[in-house]
Amino acid sequence: MTTADIHRTIDTVWRMESPRLIAGLVRMVRDVGLAEELAQDALVVALERWPDDGVPDNPGAWLMATAKHRAIDRLRRSKLQQRKHEEIAYELESEQDMAGSDAIDALDDDIGDDLLRLIFTACHPVLPMEARVALTLRLLGGLTTDEIARAFLMPEPTVAQRIVRAKRTLSEKQVPYEVPRGEELAERLAAVLHVIYLIFNEGYSATAGDDWMRPALCQEALRLGRVLAGLAPREPEVHGLVALMEIQASRTRARTGPSGEPVLLLEQNRARWDRLLINHGLEALQRAERLGGTDGPYALQAAIAACHARALTAEATDWHRIAALYARLAEVMPSPIVELNRSVALSMADGPAAGLAHVDTLQAEPALKDYHLLPSVRGDFLKKLGRLDEARAEFERAASLTRNARERELLLNRAQACVE
Fold this sequence. Notes:
Blueprint lengths: L2 H27 L2 H22 L5 H19 L5 H13 L4 H10 L1 H12 L6 H11 L5 H7 L4 H17 L9 H23 L3 E2 L5 H17 L4 H14 L25 H16 L6 H14 L8 H14 L3 H15 L1 H9 L12 H12 L3 H14 L1 E2 H15 L1
Parallel strand pairs: 1-2
């Protein structure tokens, strides 16, 4: 293998192994920041040695053993003589001579619990939401600070500061590295799912920038969702979220045209939808429903997505069922965004006048004041009703509100079509 090949291999290994490596180290040192530093140290050693020595047969075990040795060295050099440090050092030293395969087996013994604890730690409510997202992508997604910054169109120093502050906060607040129990578990699980949901949505419809989608973020969110489903198989909403993401992700190839321009749902070539992802999503939805999660917010959204997925053409879509599902979702999770989506379903089921009547009830919603999809949806209804001047004005207003270049171009084209 060439040096370039080895570096690509190291990059792949790191993305695969870093979450479990960091999770196992956090269990030992009880500090997220220190665990990540130790994992990074092991990565640096791999970059130095593997080009000369070759890639080990079990790279994950090699990284873990190297990180453990670094932990021992660091604890020995530390001036702190607290009992906990002594206990940790003793534990690590006792394992230091384990063979590579034994090391990875020991890691696997608790890897499910370790990863679950790490997910709940990274998404702890003591952190602001933007910090939870950044830390989750860094620790569990294996993304670099630069990749996270580019994904969210933010300066790299800003993202780096958020991650550093998040790790410092977890340490200062002495956040326990554990999976919560009872009512706290339900609350914290909702927070974890929301973080993954936000990551997926940002990839699916980019808030700003020149790209309509950022597929890498969708893939990371989907991977995290699948990991969580494996770690918490009895939680229906976990499967509901996975179902939603699988089905939505199935449309990726059909959502953009040859030049990267957006292609709206009703105009997509459904032959380009990924049937394997759709089948996986429908299976996950069935699991959620069997576990009693029919009315969960993510399961309901997945059921809506499933209606689209099951229809071979846009005309064959069961819009009355979709409208009913949105009505139920509005009861379970009241939101002006849900009501806006419901207006689209009503327009398809009962005509544009019904949709317009419903969307006009949302005009005074403070949360939708600067939300570009409100005038965009309203413009669509007005255009179908033949009120072209009003529709053009709405599309132009929507274009002025969006921060995504591709979406702005689409909306301006729709405004121009009203003139023509």
